[in-house]
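Hey team,

Filing this mostly as a record. A colleague (T.K.) asked me to run one chain through the structure pipeline before their review meeting, and I want the input and output archived in the tracker in case anyone asks later how it was produced. No errors, nothing strange. Just documentation.

Input sequence:
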Amino acid sequence: MLSWVLGNRNKKKKKSGKKRPSYDDAKRLAKSGNIAERRELAAHEDLEPELLYFLAEDKDTGVRVEIAKNEGTPLQADKLLAKDPETEVRSELAYKIGRLIPTLTNEENTRLTEMAMEVLEILANDELPDVRAIISNEIKSLSNVPKKIVKQLAEDVETLVSAPILEYSPLLNEQELVQILASGVQGGALLAVARRHGISDLVSEAIVDTEDQHGVTQLLKNQAAKISEKTMEVIGMTAKNIPQMHRPLVERSNLSTNTIKRIATFVSAALVERLIQRHGLDEDITHDLRQSVRERILRGDPSAVDADDELPEDRARKLFESDDLNEQTLLKALDAHDITLIPPALSLLGDIELETVKRILMGDSGKAVTGLVWKAGLSMEIAELVQLQVANVPAKSVIPLPADGEYPLSPDDMEWYLAYFLE
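Output structure:
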């Protein structure tokens, strides 16, 4: 494999489209051919190494670009091209050297490997971020590159350079990642670390310590990241006023019961239901979580509704105006634990102020809630479900659904219980 250093790499050559000229003709074209002829000549991978080297110093940029792309170009010429004044030449060389490095093995000639790494290092120090970024992307997943080059690229001030290494390089260990985070890394570089597969508890803690909302959100989305219970509790305490964190937080696996209970105090009703489904909670905890979200809905807490969702009042109004706010619609909502729709629906159907409806639902009176549902023109089946699922009426005060399905209270009695709240 010493031929790699000298040129004409020991691989199957790509066809350049035309038969290569003889050595004498090639030598003449390299020295005195026109630009088109020299560019065509420079594309031949099986050209003699000395001619490829000669063309690496051609005054025409296009010729040097062809030499930079050429897989047969000797590494001595690549080293020369790595300092070429034209960005296009160095960029093409960066792509090529990136393809070469993964092919190097422990059995390769030592000098060949050394020269390839010398070219790599020159390009990794290029003055232009775009060239450094090419190198970063090409070597981001490799383990056979010098550690110092990887660290240098990881600490680059340009995100397009540092991010690929920070996200993928197997050569960065836990301590190095923590040090990089502690140095004040932010923006896309921080997000790259947060996306990194399988990061440890310690790295996750360092990300949370940055107090960067986007970084922590990305960390939560990274299901392969290990996050300790202690760190998750910290996130749970700070995420309340950061809606973008709510869904990723709910979707995390292995949340502690304490963290789940904390989350349920500030995420939307829909996400509370997702918490219950995702984590297989027992009946007592499920009851407590639903009770907590009911109280928030009835207090008018806006966080109980997803920010992207239509407001329950607007949703109920549209259904009401289209004559679709009926028994079946509310049964479906209750079955899906979509309890945010119930208060405004009862308000519209019963022609009662929404705040009054909420007071009734929070009053622990099964008879008043039954009267409210009756006033809305709905069945006793709905009345029982609203008592249990929305108002959370104490068991001893619940008015159960009779066998005949009819209201067990007289209209006068229900009007009387409602009057207490309507006055």
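Quick notes for T.K.: Residues 1-124 form one domain. The chain has three domains: 1-124, 127-227, 312-422.
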